[in-house]
Design brief:
The chain is flat. The chain has four domains: 111 residues; 104 residues, no CATH class; 69 residues, no CATH class; 94 residues, no CATH class. The protein has 442 residues and is mostly helical. Helix 2 packs antiparallel against helix 3. 82% of the residues lie in helices and 0% in strands.
């Protein structure tokens, strides 16, 4: 008895120590989030002064929500330390709820304050960023004459359709650079007059204008390189297309090949003559598509020539054979349902599924490309039907009663179970057992 009481005392002491640890963790979490809330509230004052009321509204709303939920957490913590005795379960439940509330508050404050980190950093570095905008605008303005020269050189070589994507880049970039400088000036003036929110908005727009102007100017330089590359690739595909046309002459009598060859020849004829303004990008796209289409058709025709086409009659015979085997298997299994196991039924179901899928393919003339697949499906169907019949026969043989179970034969007459009596007995037995089982499950 003393040992039992001693064990229970140790268990109570261990539980009390665990409860005390959970209460301590809850208290530490509560102190940490309360300090975090005070720090965030102080930072909110600076953020609002720098960014304006609208920008910091999500953080302010998060602070209010955290304060409301912390009131609940402090109340639970008070209950854990008041003079009223608590059960171990009550202490654990309260401590877990306090920790949950503190973790939620931390996550919410993290999410809302991280969204303001970049704008606040930009606001703090506003003078430095404005100076950088002016430097970037000056550097990009120095590139504008070269950009204009490049566009003029491109216009002398390529068509207006080819230059549609970059022809207006010079004028648009120039406007954006002027806008960026104007935005930088406005940002400085608004900040000096204490209008921080408007100053930050002007600064954001100036930064975006510099980014877009840089993209437009770089695009002109990149376009010239890409156009030259497209011309080089186009020359290579022209040569390859002519070789493909020559190689396909021996099978040009095939309608699909003749159509693809005609399409490719039209694209070659439509290429811009030397000395004229071209659009290498669109010409490359059209010629590449026509060339690829011819490659696909030629590959299919040659593959078909290398592999003789299966006569449609062979496919029809395989389907008819599958239907015969399906009919036999279906008849035997249906007539001996009480004796047939899952293996035979599964093979039959799969064979019928394949036959159902095959029905569409063989409902009319079978395309040459589909005959190999149809033949394989028909043979698979017949094989599964044969397996179903074999498994069904095994189940029937194993389920038939032995001679000694029936006193030496059916009805005790005529020398056992040989001949037609054996067959009729198996069939009748299967039908009787099947009807009994069907009646039970019904």
């Amino acid at each position: 008895m003393a040992g039992i009481w001693g064990n229970r005392k140790k268990e109570r002491e261990a539980q009390a120590a665990q409860d005390a640890e959970e209460t301590r963790r809850a208290g530490a979490a509560l102190v940490a989030i309360d300090e975090r809330l005070r720090t965030t509230s102080d930072e909110l004052v600076y953020a609002e002064a720098e960014l304006g009321t609208d920008a910091v509204r999500p953080v302010r709303e998060a602070i209010e929500a955290v304060r409301q939920h912390l009131a609940e957490a402090f109340h639970l913590h008070q209950l854990n330390h008041d003079e009223i005795p608590d059960t171990s379960e009550e202490l654990r439940t309260r401590s877990a709820r306090i920790i949950q509330l503190c973790e939620w508050a931390e996550d919410l404050l993290d999410d809302r304050t991280e969204a303001l980190a970049a704008p606040i950093e930009r606001a703090r570095r506003a003078p430095e960023i404005v100076a950088g905008i002016r430097r970037d605008a000056e550097r990009l303005s120095a590139r504008l004459p070269q950009t204009k020269t490049t566009l003029e050189r491109l216009a002398a070589r390529y068509s207006s359709d080819a230059l549609r994507k970059v022809s207006g880049n010079h004028a648009e970039a120039e406007q954006l650079l002027n806008f960026a400088l104007h935005g930088a000036d406005i940002s400085e003036r608004r900040r000096e007059s204490g209008q921080r929110e408007q100053a930050n908005l002007a600064l954001e727009t100036a930064i975006e204008a510099i980014r877009r102007a840089t993209t437009l100017i770089d695009a002109v330089d990149s376009y010239e390189v890409e156009a030259l590359r497209a011309e080089s690739t186009l020359d290579a595909i022209v040569l390859d297309s002519r070789e493909d046309l020559a190689a396909a002459r021996d099978i040009a009598h095939v309608p699909d090949v003749a159509t693809a060859m005609s399409a490719l020849e039209r694209e070659l004829t439509a290429l811009t003559p030397a000395g004229s303004l071209a659009d290498p990008f669109s010409e490359l796209t059209r010629l590449r598509e026509a060339n690829a289409a011819l490659d696909v058709v030629v590959a299919r025709v040659r593959e078909r020539a290398a592999r003789p086409v299966i006569p449609e009659a062979h496919v029809r015979h395989a389907v008819e054979d599958a239907d015969r085997q399906l009919g036999v298997a279906r008849s035997v299994i249906s007539g001996h349902r009480g004796w047939i196991g899952a293996d035979a039924r599964t093979r039959l179901a799969e064979a019928e599924r394949i036959r159902l899928d095959l029905a569409t393919a063989v409902s009319g003339p079978i395309d040459e490309d589909d005959r190999e697949r149809a033949l394989a499906d028909a043979r698979r169907c017949g094989m599964l039907a044969a397996e179903a019949l074999q498994l069904a026969q095994r189940d029937i043989d194993s389920s038939r009663p032995r001679d000694d179970d029936w006193g030496g034969g059916w009805g005790g007459r005529g020398g056992g179970r040989g001949g037609g009596g054996d067959v009729m007995g198996g069939i009748l037995g299967g039908l009787v057992i099947g009807s009994i089982l069907d009646g039970i499950f019904d």
